[in-house]
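Record type: ASSEMBLY
Status: queued
Input:
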Amino acid sequence: MSALIQLAMTFGMLSVLAVGGGTAVLPEMQTILAQRFDIDHTAFVHIYSLGQLAPGPNMMMVLVFGFEIAGLLGAAVVLLSFFLPSSVLCLAVGRLWNKIGERPWRRAVQNALEPIAIGLMCSGVYAVAKAAFVGPLTIGLGVLTFVVLLRSRINPVYLILGAGVIGAVIMHLTGMR
Amino acid sequence: MKSQETSIALAEPTPSLWEIFREFLLIGAVSFGGGIVAYERLLLVDKRKWLTPDAFMATLAISQTLPGLNSVNLALLAGDRLRGFSGACAAAAGLMLPGGIFVLLAGIAYSAGADHPMLNVLLAGVAAGATGLLASITYKIGDQHFRRLRALSMIVATFVLMSVLKLSLVTVLLIMAPIGLYLYRPRADEQEPTK
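Status: finished
Output:
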């Protein structure tokens, strides 16, 4: 039982600290999991990679830690404690924002945040590219996807799956990455 | 004279909770390799037109600035605008369900000692494609901003602080927000409504 409480407190804290997403608290998460819950570095990296493979938000992997530590109940506790605090805060701020309504200074804040938001997205692309572009093949696939998406109306899902298949085939045949 | 309130206005009749859940479930299920925010923009602005581009940007900025995953925050805020609290729950639940199930199944398999080198091979191409997707959406969103010096310098400055100097997000915001507020401060003579 105390494991569940510890889980709730750990991930509740991480939730509030995760400004900009889960990557901000990954180091902290890894340390706490190692020190308090006996999850070693290898396991952490494995489960993190599983999370990257999974569809949807990339931090769903925290459920697996909960599961490893305290079964399905642990997974549920982690789910709630990692996502509720930040979500409540987000909804509250969102509603406050709407309540304020269109005002010159609110408009100014939005105008100021827009290029910042885009800059942050650019940083996101850069971070993802650093991990994903490991050789000419992956770079080529990424650029190709980029160009095709800008010029056509093909469903991105098909393109990305196609990139996966093409990538796997070419890698298998040539060893190129 | 129409008021500027249009930033929040919907272009479509209010969807049902089930529709919201289903649309986000779809995103949650197909977004392998990343780039969820891209899919969310495609859904909210293009496919269903539940948010205007302006409203999306505001929602995105809030999602990034506050703690929590950007994609989840986005879903919550969008769902809340559409159907209030239950809308927010429907959106977030839909988004997280497929990945949650996937990850638990994979985690159980991992506990049992399985390993999947084949999947890693597929993932390489998928991740590359997802990067292209994210880049294309960033390009689309930023189109107007990249052409204006003031906005472009803010974008570049933010990027440099984040990715080159590797400062924490909080630090970057503390630096860039005041600069932005100064550059975009409301002025009596400024008529142009930003998109």
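Annotation: Helices of chain A lie at 2-17, 26-37, 41-53, 62-100, 104-132, 136-151, 156-174.
Annotation: The CA atoms of residues 86 and 131 of chain A lie 27 Å apart.
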